[in-house]
Structure formats: structure tokens, C-alpha cells
């Protein structure tokens, strides 16, 4: 990935734990590294296919001065979030914030933090079999994608399926969305659980009826087994109501553990159930 640098931009702002820092302000030195594909800009000479670093420098100053934070960690995080949400071409950003006047009464060049953030590819399965099923799903998708840290890439068709795992319940509506997100897997999972709760999901019967079910299927090519989340989702290969929507929107996406595409896994499961 190509990189664009803005190095040692001096900005006067009012961040710091101490009251004097908030009241008097101080100098900060900011460096930013952007990751983006600049080939089209290089070939065509079209600045719109890159990032105008003059405009970005002015925006960095404005955003860094917009509010006062106790920690430069927070100021750096906010700046990274702003750049990723503001510039569609930017896939990743590293923000270095130096604090040369840090009030620690020791000789030093500066105290500093460095934060790296980027967009990640994720697939989320959705399902509902209680209440207004389609409304539940559309409300959830709108809630998730109406955020700066999540972008909807595509959505599968919504299909009606028989219940899986617990048969004595109504049919489900199911599907999959592909998103880009700057959230970590753990933060994304927390957001999905909060969204289910807002849609009044109750966990009474395992695999039982629910107003809304949201699961992370894949997050980049990440493989992890954590008490809070397992990636990829451990039962993808056993569920046609997941594989069919996945095969619709990402037919050749390769399962990072099983080494097979979504189409291959779908056909394999259909044959085993025939």
C-alpha cells in the first residue's frame, strides 16, 4: 500500500490533565501517515484520486483544537477516526502526537503517543423469527451502518429458512451483510450484542426464538478462540442459512481454517443433507 506523510505539524491546543494545560494551552507536534492506493493519481495527475495534504493539514489543526481532552491518547484516537471517516480513499492511518512541553519537570525532548487504525473487512449474519421479522432486520442494519466506524459494503437477499438446532419455533428470515469497520472484533461483538438487546432479544432457549440474532462470521482473515468471540464463526460450514447468503455476495471467499470457498462449502453441505 502506498503512503502519504505529513510530518511534524505544529498545533497549539489545550489538552492535558492539569488545569493550567487546559487554560493556557501548549504546543503539540503531529505526524500522520496515510495508507492508500495512489496509482490512479500518479498516472492521471488527478488530485481527487489522492489526498490533498494541504487541506488535510488544515483539517488536522481544526480537529485537534476542536475540544479539550485530558489525554493525548484520546486526542490522537479522535484524529485517526476523523481521517478514516472523512477520506474514503484512506485504508489506514497512523497518528503520532508529540508533547514537547509535557509538565513532568524532567529534561526530555517530548512525550508522545502513536495510534494506528485501519478499515477491516467483516461479514455479519443476521436472523429473526419473532415479531415483524423484516423490520427487526432492517432496523438493526440501519443502526449498525449509521455510524462513522462502520460502512455497509453489500447485503445479501433475505431468505426464509426453517429453524436450526431447535425445531419447535417459527421460520426465520436470514441473510448476511459485508461491512468495513474500524472497530476491533471485541468492540464489534459488543455492539452486536447491544443491538440485539435494543431489539428486545431474550436468551431463554438455546437456539430458540429471537427478535434478532447477529453473529460475526469472518473478520479479515483472523483466526482466534476467545471466551468473548471465536473467529471464524465455528458453525458456518454446518448452516445453509449462512452459506447461501455468503455464496451470493462472496462466492469465492475462502474460509481461513477450512481452506474452501463459500460456494464449495455450500455445495458440500447440500450433498451431505441430500
How would you describe this structure to a colleague?
It is a single chain. This protein has 274 residues and is of the alpha+beta class. It folds into 2 domains: 2-118, GTP cyclohydrolase I, C-terminal domain/NADPH-dependent 7-cyano-7-deazaguanine reductase, N-terminal domain (GTP Cyclohydrolase I, domain 2), CATH 3.30.1130; 120-273, Alpha-Beta Plaits, CATH 3.30.70. Helices cover 33% and strands 28% of the residues. The protein is built from 8 helices and 11 strands. The protein has helices at residues 19-24, 39-44, 53-66, 72-86, 133-145, 185-198, 240-249, 262-273, and strands spanning 2-13, 26-36, 92-99, 111-118, 120-128, 150-155, 159-161, 172-181, 213-219, 224-225, 230-231. The strands form 3 sheets. Strands 5, 6, 7, 8 and 9 form a 5-stranded antiparallel beta sheet that branches. A 4-stranded antiparallel beta sheet has the order 1-2-3-4. It has a two-stranded antiparallel sheet with strand order 10-11. Strand 10 (224-225) and strand 11 form a beta hairpin. Helix 3 crosses helix 4 (72-86) and helix 7 runs antiparallel to helix 8 (262-273). It is elongated and about 75 Å long. It starts with a strand and ends with a helix.
Amino acid at each position: 500500500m502506498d503512503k502519504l506523510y505529513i510530518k511534524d505539524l505544529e498545533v497549539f491546543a489545550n489538552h492535558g490533565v492539569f488545569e493550567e494545560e487546559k487554560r493556557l494551552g501548549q504546543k503539540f507536534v503531529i505526524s500522520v501517515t496515510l495508507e492508500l492506493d495512489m496509482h490512479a493519481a500518479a498516472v492521471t495527475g488527478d488530485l481527487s484520486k489522492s489526498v490533498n495534504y494541504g487541506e488535510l493539514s488544515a483539517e488536522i489543526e481544526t480537529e485537534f483544537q476542536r475540544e479539550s481532552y485530558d489525554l493525548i491518547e484520546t486526542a490522537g484516537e479522535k484524529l485517526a477516526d476523523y481521517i478514516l471517516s472523512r477520506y474514503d480513499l484512506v485504508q489506514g492511518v497512523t497518528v503520532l502526537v508529540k508533547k514537547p512541553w509535557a509538565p513532568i519537570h524532567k529534561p526530555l525532548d517530548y512525550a508522545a503517543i502513536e495510534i494506528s487504525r485501519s478499515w477491516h473487512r467483516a461479514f455479519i449474519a443476521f436472523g429473526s423469527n419473532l415479531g415483524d421479522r423484516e423490520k427487526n432486520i432492517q432496523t438493526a442494519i440501519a443502526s449498525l451502518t449509521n455510524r462513522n466506524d462502520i460502512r455497509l459494503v453489500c447485503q445479501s437477499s433475505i431468505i426464509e429458512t426453517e429453524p436450526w438446532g431447535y425445531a419447535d419455533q417459527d421460520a426465520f428470515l436470514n441473510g448476511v451483510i459485508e461491512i468495513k469497520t474500524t472497530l476491533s472484533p471485541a468492540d464489534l461483538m459488543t455492539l452486536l450484542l447491544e443491538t440485539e438487546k435494543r431489539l428486545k432479544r431474550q436468551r431463554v432457549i438455546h437456539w430458540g426464538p429471537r427478535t434478532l440474532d447477529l453473529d460475526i462470521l469472518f473478520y479479515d482473515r483472523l483466526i482466534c478462540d476467545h471466551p468473548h468471540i471465536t473467529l471464524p464463526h465455528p458453525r458456518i460450514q454446518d448452516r445453509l442459512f449462512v452459506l447461501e447468503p455468503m455464496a451470493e455476495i462472496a462466492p469465492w471467499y475462502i474460509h481461513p481454517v477450512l481452506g474452501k470457498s463459500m460456494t464449495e462449502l455450500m455445495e458440500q453441505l447440500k450433498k451431505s443433507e441430500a
